[in-house]
Amino acid sequence: MPRTETARTETDKAEPSRTETAGAATSAVLANVQSILAENTTVAGRLAADAGAAASLDALAAGIAAADRVFVLGAGRSGLALRMTAMRLMHLGLVVHVVGDVTTPAITAQDALLAASGSGSTAGIVRAAETAHAAGASVLVLTTAPESPLADLADVTVVLPAAQKQDHGGTLSAQYSGALFEQSVLVVGDAVFHTLWQASGATADDLWPRHANLE
């Protein structure tokens, strides 16, 4: 028995418990949470330090507010981020459509297309922007590439200082494949919504009845 107890003790010392392992993993995840938040704070700081970027953000909000209807378009994770923005704008009472949904109507000169593409060259998004531009609609763009086909079509371009999807150098972000840009799209979308909400004078109770009730 003493030998068995000794063996167990030595094994316990050699192998960390499940609790210790989970704690180490949680610490690593928390460190990455802090790193990701720091990268987003850096993006906000760079935008704040650039008078042109601040003006373009205000112009983006004004363009959304002035449109009869807002159409949003993005591919992949950028598209998911813009869908979240579309939901919030709907809560505010704007008429919003997600490009590609079967109920999305034709865009007109009284409308705005809000598009996001890190590279500014995503083929489907550029084609949609060309169509919107030809129809006379306002084209509002979020991108990392000011010299791109999408930016060339834009009435308002917000250049987000984040890494492009295939920028693997880690200079602007340690995250994988354009994640910082996609997060920035979400944050800017929420900031635009919050700005328009504040300007509207509406309360949270005023917005609440527009939340989905068929879930």
Keywords:
5 strands, alpha/beta, Rossmann fold, 215 residues, 8 helices, five-stranded parallel beta sheet
- What proportion strand? 5-15%
Identify low-pLDDT runs. Answer: 4-9
CATH class term: Alpha Beta
Mean pLDDT: 89
The helix count comes to 8
| Backbone structural class | alpha/beta
Query: Tell me about the biggest sheet?
Result: 5 strands, parallel
Percent range for helical residues? Answer: 55-70%
Could you give the order of the helices and strands?
HHHEHEEHEHEHH
Compute the number of strand runs.
5
CATH homologous superfamily placement? Glucose-6-phosphate isomerase like protein, domain 1
Domain tally: 1
Principal-axis shape: globular
Strand order within the widest beta sheet: 2-1-3-4-5
Rg calculated over all Cα atoms: 23 Å
GO molecular function, one term: isomerase activity
Biased composition (Basic and acidic residues): 1-18
Protein name: 6-phospho-3-hexuloisomerase
Domain SIS: 60-202
Description:
Keywords: Isomerase. Residues 60-202 form the SIS domain. Belongs to the SIS family. PHI subfamily. Residues 1-18 have a biased composition (Basic and acidic residues). The protein is α/β, with parallel strands linked by helices and 215 residues long. Helices cover 56% and strands 11% of the residues. It is built from eight helices and five strands. A five-stranded parallel β-sheet has the order 2-1-3-4-5.
